[in-house]
Amino acid sequence: MATSKKELRIQYKNLRATLSEEEIEEKSLAVANNLIQLPIWDKTYFHVFLPIVEHKEVDTEFVLHLLSGKDKEIVISKSDFETRSMTHFLLTDNTKIKKNEYNIPEPVNGLQVPSSNIDVVFVPLLVFDVHGNRIGYGKGFYDKFLSECRPETIKIGLSFFEAVSQIDDIFESDVKLDYCVTPEKVYEF
User: Fold this and answer.
1) According to a count of CB atoms within 10 Å of the terminal CB, is the N or C end of the chain lower?
2) 45 a known binding residue?
3) How many angstroms separate the CA atoms of 40 and 52, rounded?
């Protein structure tokens, strides 16, 4: 069994590559439906990632519908690859979304929201373990962003696959998840 970040990253990118569009849609809907069980619905500001379709990420459109149906403030980000940091904007009916050079859909402009205002963050990932550690694409954007949030901000991973038993090479700067939601179940850490 692969347990290093590098090996797991390769393994799960390959696993994800095998998913069909139908499977992605089906699994993404199941993930959104499982979110309803979480004790987060009294919160106000929800940060959502917009999926990189080419990487076959969880389609968060269903999560967006859920949040707007519950009248939540939705926050999306723009990435700065030079500073490896993210700026957050309120998603409104007027928000224009454009893909950046890495195919990440991002807001063109809008009302900025400080990290300290965000109550809940839905975190993209490739793989996670039963201890709440996650592996992303290795650029560190989310670890940096999550470390800027308040300690009580709820961090929720969204994954198509179940947890692995352990990721060996975890750094101190890696921010753990509070929950991870898959099409099958909800993990609480």
Assistant:
1) N
2) no
3) 25
Asked if 77 and 86 count as a contact pair (C-beta separation under 8 A), the reply is: yes
Please tell me whether 84 is known to bind a ligand: no
To the question of whether residue 184 is assigned a binding role by annotation, the answer is no
| Phi then psi dihedrals of residue 95, to 5 deg | -65, 125
Domain that holds residue 100: 5-188
Q: Record the pTM.
A: 0.95
Count of domains forming the chain? 1
10-23, pLDDT tens digit by residue?
A: 999 999 999 999 99
What would the two tokens of residue 116 be? 């300290």
| CA 139, chain centre distance (Å) | 14
Write the pLDDT tens digit of every residue in 122-152: 999 999 999 999 999 888 899 999 999 999 9
CATH number at residue 150: 3.40.50.10420
